[in-house]
Amino acid sequence: MAALKYYNAASYYQSHPYVIHGRAKKDMVVLHETVSGDLPGLSDIKAVEAYLVSIGYGIHGMTDLEGNIAWARGYGNAVVWQCGGVNERSIGIEQVARTPKDSPASIKYWNGRTKQLQATSWLLAAIHNTWSIPLVYSNGDSPGITSHWSVSQIYPASMGHWDCHPVHLGGYYPALSVINRAKLYAKTGITLT
Ligand SMILES: [Zn+2]
């Protein structure tokens, strides 16, 4: 089976081991948006990884405008602070973005980020093939792929974050098309190592 190609972000966690709060079985993926600099090359991803571990947080995977993918190899089951209420059971994916606001008007913003959406779908496909997390939209509590917005509707610990508010739930982020594309990509047999 083909292995996903990515920038390995494991060194951030090896140098900041205290941001890892144990290991746990995962049944959910939470999609995030960074609200950070949209910089060329890998510099945007590296800046976010460095910032998150510096404040005691962490993230399993990332994507950016150019379609770059980052993954912390060996940390797929690590518990890091990325989504209050579901940190134990979820894998987090940060998507570099500066979405204007939580409004249907922001649909256009994500429409211009095709390579990034495809990269997120590849990462979801590889996660699905590796750990059997279902490629269905989760309401923030059931197994599957969800958004920080959905988790915030259920868990006060997520403190009202609105990132990745899905189009099909009145927002702007194309969650269902990202998941549908991931189902197609999963058929290639792509995995994470
Ligand atoms: Zn978030």
Give, in order, the helices and strands. Answer: EHEHEEEHHEHH
Work out the number of β strands: 6
CATH hierarchy class name? Alpha Beta
Domain module tally: 1
CATH architecture assignment = 3-Layer(aba) Sandwich
**Fraction of helical residues:** 25-40%
Secondary structure category: alpha/beta
Oligomer: single chain
| Ligand types | zinc ion
**Estimated share of beta-strand residues:** 5-15%
| Residue-averaged pLDDT | 97
Poorly predicted segments: none
List the helices and strands and how they pair.
Blueprint lengths: L6 E2 L1 H5 L13 E6 L9 H12 L6 E3 L5 E3 L18 E6 L11 H5 L2 H18 L12 E4 H7 L20 H12 L7
Parallel strand pairs: 1-4, 2-5, 2-6, 3-5
Antiparallel strand pairs: 3-4
Bound molecules: zinc ion.
Briefly, what is this?
This protein is α/β, with parallel strands linked by helices and 193 residues long. It has one domain: Lysozyme-like.
Please provide a written account of the structure.
With 193 residues, the chain is of the alpha/beta class. The protein has one domain: Peptidoglycan recognition protein-like (Lysozyme-like). The protein is 31% helix and 12% strand. The chain contains 6 helices and 6 strands, in the order βαβαβββααβαα. The chain has helices at residues 10-14, 43-54, 107-111, 114-131, 148-154, 175-186, and strands spanning 7-8, 28-33, 61-63, 69-71, 90-95, 144-147. The chain has a 6-stranded mixed beta sheet with strand order 1-4-3-5-2-6. A hairpin with a 5-residue loop joins strand 3 (61-63) and strand 4. Helix 4 crosses helix 6. It is globular and about 40 Å long. It starts with 6 loop residues before the first strand and ends in a 7-residue tail after the last helix. The mean pLDDT is 97. Bound molecules: zinc ion. The site of zinc ion has 4 residues, from loops. Zinc ion is lined by residues 32, 148, 161, 163.
